[in-house]
Amino acid sequence: MNTLMPLSRKKNQGICAETKGADSSGAHKRSNGLAQGGSVQVDTSRLVKSTDQDVLRVMVATPLGQYGRGGIDRLTDLIVETINRREDLGVEVRRLVTRGEKRWWPVVFARALIEVGVATRRRDVDLLHIQLAWGGSLYRKLMIAALARYFRVPYVVHLHGGRFDWAKAGRHLARRIEQFFIDSAAIIVLGQCWASHILDRLPSVKDKITILPNTTTLPNGARRDRADGERIQISFLGHVQPAKGVPQLIEALGKISARADWSATIAGNGELDQSRSHAQRLAIADRVDIPGWLGPDETAALLRRTDILVLPSFVENLPMVVIEGFAYGLAVVATPVGAVPEVIDHERNGLLVPVGDVEALAGALHRLLEDRGLRRSLGEAARRDYAERFEISTYITRLVSTWRKAARP
């Protein structure tokens, strides 16, 4: 039985409605009643490989590949690494790199299409797992799905990205998107708001939808205790760009610059020079480190010494870094966009501030700097929630169950 992940019952303040152009009217009219497990709508009479065999072979479409710089690739790495260590699951999974670096994406994508064709001809794949976002990702995945239908290979759609601007699509593209979901064997979304976003336009696919929030692994090594008098560490991890609220974060840090008890790191690729200049103009560059992209080991080291994790985004789905912050037991400050309010219960396991509100963000940071007990209580609640709802082994069990139902002839 494909049970749904329990979600917060508090009013979702920002959720999918925060995404510009998204058609989110009535986003909660169908918040209940998703069937527990979905019926496959594609014609499986000519499946290239019967999944009655012991091993289920899955290709997972991912943008950049192993160690890619983005949430989808990081999640894919976790899925592949975990499943490949679990022989008891009876699953073989491999990456299908669909974009690569921007300059070479046509070559990489052409190779991906060839790889799908060859694998199906050789009967080496039972199921395609298609990770989907808006923009170029959509067009590429529509083509992969068309190829899967041609070869009668079932596919699962896994919706990522902070925007899915269905309302902005022209009539022809909208019809193709609808058929893409209708022909899928299963649909995975990261939160109830995204399930509602799809069901508002396609109520017929409700039996296919599974809500499966993102996951991460337990940290290696304990967080270091903060010594008395040592500066409190504030960290941001993500794309350094306006959509992530980085300018507002730097402004908020400027507003608490009179306090001498903090330092900050804004890590990730993006508008690094602009952000450094911004910090210099506010005379906080000596306390705000902007190192660029951090690898896995560097990220783990930063999270181990972090006290407050901040993500003041304008647009999100369900960011991996929030789940990672929970796993590390950090006090998390975020905005109520995408599925974030379904994870952060304001004042219990984190703090939510209005989108773009510099004063509110500065106030939340000041409050956490001032109140060590609040930082500790939020972090402890976040760590408990991670263990109960977002732990990797539970995620993999539910994912594999979804795969097997989707691939079943």
Q: What do these coordinates show?
A:
With 409 residues, the protein is an alpha/beta fold. The chain is built from 13 helices and 12 strands. The strands form 2 sheets. A 6-stranded parallel beta sheet has the order 2-1-3-4-5-6, sandwiched between helices. A 6-stranded parallel beta sheet has the order 9-8-7-10-11-12, sandwiched between helices. Helix 3 (136-150) links the parallel strand 3 and strand 4. It is globular and about 65 Å long.
Show the helix and strand layout.
Layout: E1 56-62, H1 71-84, E2 91-97, H2 105-121, E3 127-132, H3 136-150, E4 155-159, H4 171-182, E5 186-189, H5 192-199, E6 209-211, E7 232-237, H6 246-255, E8 262-267, H7 272-281, E9 288-292, H8 296-304, E10 308-311, H9 320-327, E11 331-334, H10 340-343, E12 351-352, H11 358-370, H12 372-390, H13 392-407
Parallel strand pairs: 1-2, 1-3, 3-4, 4-5, 5-6, 7-8, 7-10, 8-9, 10-11, 11-12
Strand content: 5-15%
The level of helicity is 25-40%
Largest sheet: 6 strands, parallel
Unreliable residue runs: 1-15, 17-52
How far apart lie the N and C ends? 18 Å
Count of helices?
Answer: 13
What would CATH call the architecture of the largest domain? 3-Layer(aba) Sandwich
Give the CATH class of the largest domain. Answer: Alpha Beta
Coarse shape = globular
Mean pLDDT: 87
